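Hey, weird one. I pasted the Phosphatidate cytidylyltransferase sequence into the form twice and got a warning about non-standard characters only the second time. First submission, copied straight from the form history:
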Amino acid sequence: MRFGLIFDSNGPRGVFRIPRGNLVKLKHQRLITAVAKAEQPEQIDDLEKIDEEVNEGTQISVEENSDSEHQQKASQLKKRVIFGLGIGVSAGGVVLAGGWVFTMALAVAVFIGAREYFELVRSRGIATGMTPPPRYVSRVCSVICALMPILTLYFGNIDVSVTSAAFVVAMALLLQRGNPRFAQLSSTMFGLFYCGYLPCFWIKLRCGLAAPALNTRVVASWPVLLGGRTQWTVGLVATLISVSSIIAADTCAFIWGKAFGRTPLTSISPKKTWEGALAGLGGCIATSIILAKTLSWPTNVLSAVAFGFLNYFGSLFGDLTESMIKRDAGVKDSGSLIPGHGGILDRFDSYIFTGALAYSFVKIFLPLYGV
């Protein structure tokens, strides 16, 4: 390629001179480029079609997955509601019956809950950092926990049964083959306390507070076949209010937290929010006041508010304690006994600490048991 300068009337102009061979090559390049441009739209169209088909397939699979996930959640919620209502009706009948019916039902629940607890202790997540108790000790402890409510009803107190059980279990661990570990002793003793000792306070609350609830309006119209006037004791009324308040707290916290929950409550249970917790507290106190007005116990509104406040924090603490155990164990549910709910501990974790707090409140802080 050469550059020349030409002068004419319009002024100097620069001219490029291209050799003939280079001109032929340039023409061939332009021809190839033109052919490529002519063929390229078809290739682009094919690629676009392929991309569209892939995107459509991906979109369809995503929609199918979302539909199946939605159906699974709907089915899970349906099971949760159905079995929750069944448990609620059954529990209401057991609470009204009281006596040995209430005690034996609680003993069965305690036995299953203790088995779930010791399985959690033996799980890979917890057992990695500690030595779990031997299986025979876990089974013996489960039986002892189930016997504690029965002994509480029979003897009227828990002290002797708990002390004797702790001594027997400690001796069994210390005399086992190999090297006993403190982790075995601590996890076993906590199991006796958590699954056996604490639930016994529901026996003391329901069956131990036998003072008649004289001001309760339901007494006058209560059928004789269902126990008559003597059926309605302070223990029955206090148990009904406590259980109903916990149910209301769980329901309000779940619904409000799902709809408006934004601020996490604690890292132990990531799904719990401050919004849901406050809604649960409000629902618990409101239920306690309404039932106190309906059943005329306790007669003081402030006592009803305090009773609801105490029930809520007992249920929340029990829920978080079980969540901490499951988190360390690396499992979502403690068991699979109840469809839609998990295990016994998943369903009744809110009641474990509440019985002791409710009984202590009525026994110690309410003059004349609130009558």
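That's the output from the first submission. The warning seems to come from a hidden character in my clipboard, not from the data itself. The longest strand covers residues 2-8.
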